[in-house]
Amino acid sequence: MSQWPTAVWLPILLLLGSNVFMTFAWYGHLKFKTTTLASAIVVSWLIALPEYLLQVPANRLGHGHYSAAQLKTIQEVITLSVFCVFSVTYLGESLRWNHFVAFALIALAAYFMFLE
What we know:
mainly alpha, 4 helices
């Protein structure tokens, strides 16, 4: 079994981790509506710092194997995947048919991004 080169899989793993942090930074405060906006901003910034510590190396390591446009596309697909899980499990919101259609169209766009 051949191993994937680090430039292929490590950026994807780092982007996955960064998106978990960023999703909590952007949307985690929605469960705590009684906290002040200033508090939500400060906590979100503190959560976002580890996101940058993963995102920047992901793009640095991945660029060369992936184009910048491909890295951004990978990041967006991961973002939507992480957000779906977050939205359902953390916020208790449901996904409807139109969400799945929209995500499928985005996945189709991602497919075209990787065509040679």
